[in-house]
Amino acid sequence: MYHLPSRRKKKKKTDKLNLVPILDSVFILIFFLLLSAQFIKIFEINSNVPIVSPAEPPPSKKNKEPLSLTVEISKDAIILLTGSNQSELKKFLANPEGEFPLVDYHTFLIDLKKKHIDEKTVIFEPSEEVEYEQIVKVMDATRLLDKTDETIYKKDEIGNDVPLEFLFDDIIFGNITS
Questions:
Q1: pTM above 0.85, yes or no
Q2: Beta 77-82 vs 121-126: how paired, if at all?
Q3: What are 130-174's pLDDT values in tens digits?
């Protein structure tokens, strides 16, 4: 009878890989990456690009000329223009420090919104010398209704009075160059 050699009879015991230290180091690495990451809050202000089309604009619902509100912002003034002929509606001059009278501007826009309740669009045309922060301040005064402002109501589809949340919230930049 044939016997197998003794070294083949013995089965080798395989060692299991210890993954605990590797997992510990991965979790510590993840912890330090999360601590070292900088979390930034990014703010976005919605704005549309002007539409260029050879077609005629759609007819208005009430046969009255649209407001066509345009806000020209220069270093020393905010000029409100209206209508298709872009006639000057109101001018707000900056003070000697370069600050615009945004409270007066905002109050005027509230009165204008009451007369043109369905209008939402405003065209912004800032000049190059105006600082970004000033443009954002004017945009906020144009878009937002403060809690201290008088409530403006609009009729919904059913006929119920609904308070408006925004003044002119559809902002289009009209003088954008590529």
A1: no
A2: unpaired
A3: 888 898 899 999 888 888 888 888 888 888 888 888 888 888 887
| Residue ranges of domains in the chain | 79-173
Structure tokens at 12: 């080798």
pLDDT digits (tens, 9 = 90+) for 106-118: 999 989 888 888 8
Of 67, 73, 41, which Cα lies nearest the Cα of 141?
73
DSSP H stretches of helix in the chain: 6-9, 20-36, 102-115, 132-143
The crossing angle, in degrees rounded to 10, of helices 132-143 and 102-115 is 40
DSSP 21: H
Q: 142 with 93: CB under 8 angstroms?
A: no
| C-alpha to C-alpha distances, 172 to 18, 65, 152, nearest whole angstrom | 62, 19, 23
